């Protein structure tokens, strides 16, 4: 078993005086895919935001042995954490090409950036066709593909994905999740995936945590969670 890339212990998060996460523990293995499941308002988005210093937290967040809690977002990005926020996070007035170049802003290896740029178009051929188009003119699915590609241009160690299936047609979702698997297998990029679509997330992930009102109530291998009676009833619908 490989060691964790990300270890989170006793994590609390707050918006002002609102206490949203109540001491959660979880990890993402090196090269692994962890999913955090839960209903609306459970704290999934907040958990991802906490990983990149975007909310006030208490507790330990350890990336590859280094504490990242309390660090500014900019430093966390430079340490290899890329965030694909809900609502996509592309620069709508910039072209596809420009978005990808912006994604690589921390990198100095020009040849590597160029190779990754081509790689993104191989993953998502539709982006190649639309590379001179403004991101704002793309379909929802294409914008999601661009948001993921932009994050990957950072060459992250850890990719944070917030509800990537949201609002997309089932066929596009299928395509996107197949690419996630391919990227994970080809480049070993670890992923932390937040999803309301539990069935979908549990097919991709190796580990899962179920959040309810800011607390982890069930955790384990994706397979064991898939077979958990209460998860099946409440989140999988069978
Ligand atoms: P959803 O799928 O609806 O986004 P979620 O599991 O991602 O749900 P969060 O968005 O993390 O949940 O929200 C957790 C709790 O924190 C909710 O009760 C929400 O109302 C509250 N919350 C979220 N953002 C803020 C904010 N900026 N200020 C105050 N409270 C917030």
Low-confidence stretches: none
What is the number of domains? 2
Tally the beta strands. 10
In terms of DSSP E residues, the strand content is: 25-35%
Structural class by helix and strand composition: alpha/beta
Number of helices: 10
Q: What integer value in Å does the Rg equal?
A: 17 Å
| Strand order, sheet with most strands | 6-7-8-3-9-10
How far apart are the first and last residues' alpha carbons, in Å? 32 Å
CATH class of the largest domain, anyone?
A: Alpha Beta
Bound molecules: adenosine-5'-triphosphate
- The gross shape turns out to be globular
In CATH, the architecture of the largest domain is 3-Layer(aba) Sandwich
- Percent range of helical residues: 25-40%
What do the pLDDT scores average to?
A: 94
CATH topology of the largest domain, anyone?
Rossmann fold
Assembly state: single chain
What would you give as the CATH superfamily of the largest domain? P-loop containing nucleotide triphosphate hydrolases
Give the helix/strand layout.
Layout: E1 4-15, E2 18-29, E3 33-38, H1 44-51, E4 56-63, E5 66-67, H2 73-78, E6 81-84, H3 96-103, H4 110-123, H5 125-129, H6 140-152, E7 158-162, H7 170-187, E8 190-195, H8 198-204, E9 207-212, E10 215-221, H9 222-226, H10 229-236
Parallel strand pairs: 3-8, 3-9, 6-7, 7-8
Antiparallel strand pairs: 1-2, 1-4, 4-5, 9-10
Bound molecules: adenosine-5'-triphosphate.
Adenosine-5'-triphosphate binds next to strand 2 and helix 1.
GO molecular function, one term: ATP hydrolysis activity
Protein name: ABC transporter ATP-binding protein
Domain ABC transporter: 6-238
